[in-house]
C-alpha cells in the first residue's frame, strides 16, 4: 500500500512535465485520465484510512482534511479547464500548486518531510518584517529612479522607453537584486552620465549585499530554531 501510494504521488507530481505548457507535451485526454486515476487512488486511500480510524480522530486530523480539499479542488479545476478548452477559451491549471500536499500529508510520507514543511510554515511569519523592509527599500529606490530618469527621455538598446513606468521600474530593480539583468538595466543611464552608476551601486549594496544576506540569516536561524523544538528534530 505504501509503495502504491508513493507511486501515484510521484506520478501526479510528474504530470507537470507533460501538461501544457510542457517539456514533453502529451494530449490533454491522456494527462487528465492519469490525473483522475491518481486522485481516485488518493480518495480510496483516504477512505480506507477512515475505515480503520475512529471517526472523531479522523476528522480532527488536519492532514486528512487537507487531502480531501486538495482532491476536490483538483477535480473541480480539471473539470473547469476541460469545459473551457472545449469552447476554445485559454485558461491555466491553478490547482497544480496543491499537488505537493499529497506528498506531505499522507500517513505514508516520511516524518522528516512533514517536519521540514512545518518548520517552513512557522518560519514564514517571522521573516515577514525583513521582507517588508526589503520591499520598502525596493519601492523607495524605484521612486528615486523614476525621478532621476523618467523625465530624461532615455531609451533602452531596443528603443523602448527607459524607466518611465513605476511598476516596470519596480520589476527591473527587483530582477537587478538577483543581478540577472546586470549591467544591461543600468547601461542607458550610464551612457547618459557615468555619475548615475552611483545610484545602481548604492542599490546593489543595500539590497543585494545587505538585505539578501540579512534575509538569508533570518530564514536560516528561524528555520533551525523551529526544527530543533520539534520532536525528533534536533540538529547540529
TrEMBL record:
Pfam families the UniProt entry points to: Ion_trans (PF00520)
Keyword vocabulary terms for this entry: Membrane, Signal, Transmembrane, Transmembrane helix
Secretion signal span: 1-16
Record-linked Gene3D superfamilies: 1.10.287.70
Membrane topology: Multi-pass membrane protein
InterPro entries recorded: Ion_trans_dom
Highest taxon in the source lineage: Eukaryota
SUPFAM superfamilies reported in the protein's UniProt record: Voltage-gated potassium channels
Transmembrane region(s): 26-44, 65-84, 127-146, 166-183, 195-220
GO molecular function per UniProt: monoatomic ion channel activity
GO cellular component: a single term: membrane
Residue span, Ion transport domain: 6-225
Subcellular location(s) per record: Membrane
Principal subcellular localization: membrane
Name the record gives this protein: TPC2 protein
